[in-house]
Write a structure and sequence with these properties.
It is a single chain. The chain is mostly helical. It has one domain. It is built from 16 helices and no strands.
Amino acid sequence: MAPAVGDSEEEKVPGSASMRAPGRNGPSKKRTLLAEQELRLLSTLVLLLGVGLFLALPFVLSIGSVVFLPLTCAIILSVLLAPLADRFASWGVPNTLASVLALIIFLTIVVLAFGAILQPAFTLYDRLPELIEGIGKRYHEMQEDFAWLARANDRLAELLGSGGNEVTLAGPSVFQQVAISAPLLLLEVMLTFLMAFFMVEARSRLRRNILFGRTTFGTSVKAARVLREVQDRVAAYILTVAWINLGVGIVVALGAWAMDLPAPIMWGGLATLLNFVPYIGPLAMTALLTLFGLGTADTVFLGLIPPISYVALHMIEANAVTPAILGRRFTMNPVMILLAFSYFSWIWGAVGALLSVPILLMVTAFFDHVGRPNLVGFIFGEPLFQTPLIEDAGGSAEETRPA
């Protein structure tokens, strides 16, 4: 019986498949490893640049706020007004006239809103001495109720010893600050509306450039989807929040009328406008109602009824109504909202707080289509972005290998 040497001889033959396997797979694995290392190095550089930009951007934006703040406001305003201008254009209105009409409608709404607030506010300004006197009376009543606390504080100060004399430096008055900042504010408002008009008017050319100015059809489609998603998200968010805040203003106006407060429309308008500013707006509204209630009511208890009622309404709106309506389309991480709020408030103050959520919506819409960075996974060795670069490198190595 002949020995079965076919398999062993085939393994030893230099041209067999088993002898060629290591030679064929070696370059492919080496190319894949080099591609992984190169990709990780580039990802590290991108991450470092992103962190540096995140830390340096506040200083640049705050120093150049005269330019960057109107530009940011104009971008968000153009995103909001572009659908309205498109609707006018679909009715046969020329593009320039449609842009002007959209901007005029927005300005009319803003002027009417501020008129409904400022006209009663000027009327109540004449009662300011009476309000201050009423607040002083309520303050003295509260001092009498908590006199024991003041005595305990004085006793504690005697035991610990008094500190040195305090020196108070006089600063500019409110009217002086307004007089100094009014020209700059007027310039920024004019720049905002001028840039918003030109952006709305040039929206069609921008879309054509995005669609037809790319080198590949897939890139054009992705860019068009990003533009559409940013516009839809920001416009839908602002309009939805505007309707919610309008409802809050109507309820506040009805409550002010029921409590016999003067100028209920003014209180409703203030509640509507201040509710656009997260956290700070409701706090300011509560403080105004507290001061006005204590200045006009006969007792402290009656003076605290308006602010307590508003706080209860705000709790219902913020924890039940708004999440139920916005949660269906705008599922954002609350930590990211607070981070954006604090970040842009640090840069631009109250205006930055107002713009923080629309800017966050634009950024998240962009990353949803381009790809979100995998920060946690990158620390543990995963790619920073999900990309087929490594697979393509391995596939190209297999394709270019000689037969």
